[in-house]
Amino acid sequence: DTVRHLGTVEPASLAIGIASIAFLGVYQARPRRIPGALLVVVGATAAARLLDLDAVTVAQRYGDLPRSLPTPTLAFFDLGRAIDLLPQAAAIAVLGAVESLLSAVVADGMAGDGHRHDPDRELIGQGLANLVAPVLGGIPATAAIARTAAGIRSGATSRLSGVVHALTVLVLVLALAPLAGDIPLAALAGILVVVAWGIADVPELAKLIRTAPRLELLVLVGTILVTVALDLTFAIALGVVTSLFLLMRELVRIPVAAEILPDDRDAEGVPSDIVALARQHPDALFFNAQGIISFHSAAAFEATLPRHDPRPLILRMRDIRHIDSSGLITLEAVIEHRHRSGGDTILTDVRPDVASALRRFGIADLVLDPALDQTTEGAFGSLERLPTSSSARASESVSLGPEARKPLN
User: Fold this and answer.
1) Quick check: 285 and 259 in contact, CB under 8 A?
2) Domain 257-404: CATH class, spelled out
3) Given this model, what pLDDT does residue 169 score?
């Protein structure tokens, strides 16, 4: 498409664009008090008018800029139409949130140490702005990477820069609209090219291409191509969704539970005194669980735990931060299978929120400590209370009801 339109190149616009890029490249080589973008806009506009250059301006492309603020109104609101538009509005809100947070991350990287955004504040502010904008004739808006980066490149360091930016636009609209209409588009394009080059962080990009895993590299290249060919917002959505699928793929491979003995190669994160206790009790099984027991990991979790071994199982759950319905169903099935084989199960070091989920689901009634407040050390210390033979345990545990289970405390 670019090759086909080479014949339509306007020499004046091309010269202004190249000059703008060259000036900014030299001027911004070291910190300056006056933003280079401001000098480019003023200089290019003055040169175009004084030299009578045939360069396309803002007014020529988009018409005369408004010289007053729109009148607030709610006449456009229709409840039925608003309900019909909820799915589209939700999609726009999600994409807008993603783009705004991405802009904030880019801004953090450009601003350096000591500058970190607050995601909650960012999204609340964007939501409030988008509630007010339609009243003044506006459309949904997000933080823009280009404008954010341009501000940082021009020396912006605080939220005050955003206020100054808004007031500057207001002054341009109310007092300088005719002059703003004379700004050559090529000058603005040159500024954006320099900003985009700064955002790209070419050395970091080259490092990613050399070192990133192959699948992640495909996401990177795909996102870049979609950005160029279609749209940034669509590219962000595609990149996020693809990355989530890759994350799920990796999560499935992460072991959720690991047996600590007979060897202790999987004992990372387990205190050495607990490992020593496990060595002193070869008649018991000791597994350490970690991460999230969810739909993506339930199958691997079930496959790891022994179902038919009659020895008592101590399952340390200190590092389990969440368990969903799939995980609850799986854990219940494992405990029930073990019970039918004469094997008792003890859940130790359970986090309060996880314990609450286990109680609601009824799993607390299937284990030896229904209170779910047993420590791993306490569980090992209570093993002598359990029957030592599998046949004795099997005969003692006839039903799955809590009446057949004797708490350890």
Assistant:
1) yes
2) alpha beta
3) 80
